[in-house]
Amino acid sequence: MKAKIYSFIIVLFVTVTVAAQSNRIIDSKEYDQLKRANQLPEKFMMKQTEGKTILMPRIHPSANTIQSNATCNCLLPLDTTYSVVPFTNGVAPDFRNDDGSSPVMAIPFSFCFFGQPVDSLYINNNGNISFYAPYFTFTPSGFPSASFAMIAPFWADVDTRDTLSGLVYYKVTPTALIVKWEQVGYFNMHSNLVSTFQLIITDGTDPLIPGGSNVAFCYGDMQWTTGDASGGVGGFGGTAATVGSNLGDAINFIQFGRFDQPGYGYDGPYLANDSVDWLDSSSFRFDLCTMTIAPVPFDCNNDTVYLRVGDASDVDVSFICPVAGQTASISVNSGGLSNLTTFSNTSGSLARYNGRLIADAADIGNHTFTLTVTDNGTPPQTTTFNRVFQVDQALGIQPADAGPSISFSPNPFTNQTTLILSGVNRKNVSLVISDVTGREVMTVNHVPSSLIIEKGNLPKGIYFYHLGDGDGLSKTGKIVIQ
């Protein structure tokens, strides 16, 4: 088991003190050998490449890269405006490395971090950014911690040295920093499983994160949790990966969970360790400027759903209380919808509302469905979740032209599922199924009313479907192969 690396050692990256004289200086080659053998000393300093200067990234013009999809995921595609992070222990142009950190990066906006304005930071290979000092710590701890001032979309032992692993990229605009870990592997040079995730921080006004928030965690396909040197076997087990943020004073912190296994299980931010596939194609948006963080929705907010009379729309929304010890309760305003059924309304650190709307002729027009989520903090914090339902088609339309009813049974499924499509009197309905990267894995034209979909060679995971006919019908959603 690795020796614990104390917080004052981290400070030695940027500040030379008397204590440094007693620390062993380790270059990258020796570090790699000792890490493989689990023989890193208790106190050491990483030898840094000389001649590095403060890096001011080139400011790229803001681009309209906001994507809209069924899950409202904030994951942005890579384009030519991104650069590979220049890790000090990597070699250009790819800067493949293990446990590396960037030079200090000056950002052109003020970021509010637990009430403190910061304008420089470090990007760390191991799934986080940090302030005041770089961190090479590869075995994550849970929060709170007095050792780390960081924001961690997925703090784990990332290793990009294998050429089949992806890289870590960044982009700076006048009001935002985007860091993307694109299909990265894990220690020790494994790329049989890779994960994609992204961090966005802003000045609080950038439209990349709407609603006044200044941080977003965005996830693609998450396939592993733990490196070999953190007790992992085959990418899982050992010390769980950490998702959250920590001021470094052992008081102020938030946590969304710790992940150490495959699958879709999740019971809240501070209970049992959770399953990493739960993060697939998800996102969290929150305001890290305050010391008290309001409940965070795990779904699209301020979304609009277009329905015809007879259509069904499920509302299944969870809210996470990332502050330790807090729980939240949900109050519901149907917005005047006449046929809304509530199946469950559960309070807790993971609060959840589950209901279904059947659009009625009496609902024609726009209705704002509102969930008001209030935690038990001091003072209480409130999150308002809105979903607009726009219902069209007047009473008296022909039943054959009524809105469609779409279901997959079962969902999730293991080997096959059946698509049931009713209320559609058209012959040119098409079905497209894509994976979390947007790659189309199945296309069916002229979809019948009942269609059996075989798993075939598709791996386990989350997929998205789109049903359309090019003439107004457009339905999207999620299916899961388990």
What's the total count of β strands? Answer: 30
Indicate how many domains the architecture comprises.
3
C-alpha Rg (nearest Å): 24 Å
Briefly note the structural class of the backbone: mainly beta
What are the segments in which pLDDT stays under 50 over at least 5 consecutive residues?
A: 1-21, 58-71, 394-402
Q: Mind describing the biggest β-sheet?
A: 7 strands, mixed
Strand content: 35-45%
**Helix segment tally:** 2
Helix content: under 10%
Backbone shape: globular
What do the pLDDT scores average to? 83
Cα(first) to Cα(last) distance is 33 Å
Question: Strands across the major sheet, in which order?
Answer: 4-5-6-7-12-13-14
In short:
With 482 residues, the protein is mostly beta strands. It has helices at 7-11, 28-36, and strands spanning 24-26, 44-46, 83-84, 105-113, 116-124, 128-130, 150-155, 168-173, 176-186, 190-202, 215-219, 241-246, 253-261, 274-275, 283-286, 296-297, 303-308, 312-320, 328-333, 340-346, 350-358, 365-375, 382-392, 405-409, 416-422, 430-434, 440-444, 450-454, 461-468, 474-481.
Description:
This protein has 482 residues and is mainly beta. It folds into three domains: 280 residues, no CATH class; 97 residues, Sandwich (Immunoglobulin-like), CATH 2.60.40; 78 residues, Immunoglobulin-like (Sandwich), CATH 2.60.40. It is 3% helix and 40% strand. The protein has two helices and 30 strands. A hairpin with a 5-residue loop joins strand 26 and strand 27. The radius of gyration is 24 Å and the shape is globular. It starts with 6 loop residues before the first helix and ends with a strand.
